[in-house]
Amino acid sequence: MINVLVVDDSALIRRVLTEIINSDPNMEVIGTAADPYIARDKIKALHPDVITLDIEMPKMDGIKFLKNLMRLRPMPVVMISTLTQKGAPATLEALEIGAVDYVGKPSADKPELLTEYANEILQKIRAAATANVARLEQQASGLTTRSATPKRAGVSPSGKLIAIGASTGGTEAIRELLLLMPLDSPPIVITQHIPPVFSASFAKRLDSMLPLTVHEAVDGDKIIPGHVYIAPGDLHMEVKLKGSHYYCRVFEGERVNLHKPSVEVLFNSITQQCAKQTVGVMLTGMGADGAKAMLRMKEAGSYNIVQDQATSVVWGMPGEAVKLGAADAISPLKSIPDAIIKRLKRMV
């Protein structure tokens, strides 16, 4: 049984979330709180397994409360976020602080989407309950090892490519990995499960932090060294080879493995276009999206690195890739950049 504390200043949202969570026979709302001060007392008294936390609340906002919580008593938190461009920076900050995941607030004017919303929040609470709290604590306390980004690593980027897939915990894992990549990196293409209103903010946030240039991918973008391309939310991204150059193909389509963008779609395009010139990377994430496609990449000639369980927030996607035999190497997050560089130097 997963015991959940719901923290939200809206009585309606507290009631809706309680009904959704209690509909699962393996979950129970053991308490609710209208503000962080009440939540603090109920955490001490009730010892929940997972907290759902609103960002915008009176007395103390969710970001400040989350910072205090992750410093004093780290535990799995799912943020209840307003999925808008305005709300995106705060939600991304919450993930940086140590929240496991986020889900949008249910929309009163779209009751037909309530079932889909209910399934999403139950899935994310379930994943949060098994999240690597030690990893979250390390992230929150800033203990993750980072070194200065090397100016050059002597990597010839011509014709080479790095393809990354990630989901739950991925926004921070991607940031930490890219911070350690050299300026002469081959192009990097990334599919991270993310909603449409967040992907542009995510790309902009990364671009402000990194020496590499980060874009939200646009259909037809020429893929060039030293640049990173993030799949837009609610669109798939593929790599296409035209002549001697790679380009992004960004397009509408059905969900694949329940996701859009899907890692499966990106990795399948690598298999078809450029597997032997690619290093594939699977980072932390819930579910199995991309695992089978990663195996096909390996069979077609790519070299694949999978994040290890100890440094993953959720070892779903990477774990499935390992089970299928898709990994050439299993590595802690901080060691993946060096592993990529070493492999690239050996590639013709």
UniProtKB/TrEMBL annotation:
Chief localization: cytoplasm
Response regulatory domain sequence ranges: 3-120
Keywords of this entry: Chemotaxis, Coiled coil, Cytoplasm, Hydrolase, Phosphoprotein
Residues recorded with modification 4-aspartylphosphate: D54
CDD domains the UniProt entry points to: CheB_Rec, REC_CheB-like
Pfam families named among the record's database cross-references: CheB_methylest, Response_reg
Active site residues according to the UniProt entry: S167, H193, D289
Post-translational modification: Phosphorylated by CheA. Phosphorylation of the N-terminal regulatory domain activates the methylesterase activity.
Catalytic activity of the protein: L-glutaminyl-[protein] + H2O = L-glutamyl-[protein] + NH4(+); [protein]-L-glutamate 5-O-methyl ester + H2O = L-glutamyl-[protein] + methanol + H(+)
UniProt keyword Cytoplasm, yes or no: yes
Coiled-coil boundaries: 119-146
Organism domain of life: Bacteria
Domain remark text: Contains a C-terminal catalytic domain, and an N-terminal region which modulates catalytic activity.
Family: Belongs to the CheB family.
Identification of the protein by name: Protein-glutamate methylesterase/protein-glutamine glutaminase
Organism: Bermanella marisrubri
Gene name of this polypeptide: cheB
